[in-house]
Structure formats: C-alpha cells, structure tokens
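Researcher: Here's the sequence for the chain we discussed earlier.
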Amino acid sequence: MATLHSYSKKLTATIPTPMSGLALGLASLGWCISNLFPAFFVLKPLSALLAGFILLLLVLKFIHQPAQLRADLAHPVVGSVLPTSAMTIMVISHSIAAYSHLIATVVWLLAIAVHLGLLASFVYFRSRNFELNQLVPSWFIPPVGFVVADVTFNGMSALQPLAMGLWYLGVIFYLLLLPFMIYRLCRGSAIPQQTQPTIAVMAAPASLCLAGYLSVHPMPAAGVVFALLSVAIIMTLAIYLAFIQLLRLPFSPAFAAYTFPLVIGVTAISKVVTWLSSEHLSPGWLSVLQYLVWLELVVAIAVISLVCIHYVRFLLKISTANSES
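Model: Thanks. This is the structure I predict for it:
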C-alpha cells in the first residue's frame, strides 16, 4: 500500500493544474467530431474517458498536496483556470447519459455545484487583492464557463429553469466583464509571456453563450442568435490572427487555453446551421456557415494535436528529470 501511495504521489507531482483545460478541450473535441461524423461515435466516450483520467490525476495531486490546491485557488491565473475541471465533468456527464440518465443528471448537478464553488473561491481571493493588471482573459472562465451546463443539458423539464437561469447569468457576467477586459488588454501593462496563451480564451464566451442558447431555448430569437454569432465569429477570427504570435511562444501549461475556445466555436456554428436549416434560410448562407464549420474544425484538430504533442514532451521531460534526480 505504501508503495502504491508513493508511486501515485510521484506520478501526479508533475501534472500541471492548467491541464484540466486540456481535458476539457479533448472531451469537447471528441463529442464535437462524433456529432458531425456519426461514424466516429466512439470518439465521444473515449475522449470522455481520457479527460476523466486527466482529472483523476489532478485530484490525486491535490490529495497528496493539499497546500498546492489552496495556492492554485489563490493564484490570479491558475485560480481562474481551475473551473475548467467542473466544465469537463459536465461534458463527461453527457457521455454517461448514454448508459444511465439518472447518474448523468447527478454528475451534471454536482459539476454545476463544484463550478459555482470555484467561482465563489475565485471572487473571494480576487476581491482581497485585486489589481487591474492581473486581469487576463481566463477570468471569463469562472463567471461564464458554467454555461457549458446548458450545452450539456439533457432536456429534463424539471431542470429547465436552472439551465435557463445559468445561461442568463453567464451572458450577464460576460457583458459586464467584456468592457473591462478589452480596456485592460488595450491600456493595461503587457501580459507576461507565460500567461499570454490565455488570450485565446477571448474566443470562447460568445461561442459558448450561443451554443448554450440554442441548446436550452425551445424557440430561439433570431436577433439573439445572429448577435452572438457575429461576436463569436469576430472573436474567433481575431484569435486566429493572434495565433501567428501565440503559437511561437515557448511551451507552457497555459497552452491548454488554446483548446476549448476552438472547439466551442465549431459546436456553436454547427448548432446555428442545424437551427437555420429548420428555418428554411437561403441555401447560400447555410453553405457559407457549413464551410466555416469545416474550417474551424480543421484548425481545432490541428491546434489541439499540437498542444497534446507539446504536453507529452513536457511531461516526459519532467518525468525523466525526476527519475534521474
């Protein structure tokens, strides 16, 4: 037993906390691909299992190093990334639904509770020591990320008010925080190189709110859809341009921030295509949006594959160094 404990502690010591963001990106990508290409349906549960394994490693890490959990919660960047673990669990719950609707619902509700708890923790620590220059795009994750609950909503009528309430809260928080974020990026000091990858998170909130809206609203309003779609596309294109510089940065665990924003963009636009198909929109516009889905999917797969390669190299390098020491 002591040997197992020692091995577990050694194995998880090298796992960086931002890797929860990679778990979210992988689980979301597997689900996205299985939706677009039903023949690859197995990718959804497989990616959920992989994401769950990554989260398990992080849980073991914090069990062995409880002081590290508090330090991460108090950190202005890492503390904002931790809620991606709850978001990942929400995505995993959707895969569980194929086997047990009840268990999936319980897991979904627990994930929401965990996310709200992490949001409260983030607000607590940041309110004690707030500085404008600490504001980075990953700060969108705690107050807006729980909208993933809407994307993964199973349609249970009893939980519809909760899903709707979460969506409205997420949109309100997004609209309140966005002006401050833009001001900080334009007028504040330069973001440190190690946390610059978090800029990619700017592409996520609008796409997430759009995907969540189309998932929980039975009769979506065209004005809301097109407003969110416009912002989502603009933000995604802006991040594509930012990638010219971001992908040249030396690797850091913050590269995980490149993953989910790209996948949720694909998910959001594919949902718009499905919705517009039922609205009998001009085939020309549908074709444009469908091409955009394929383009964004290719970019997402390419970037996430690159991030995974970087992570494998990083973990192997640290593991080798620890073995030699």
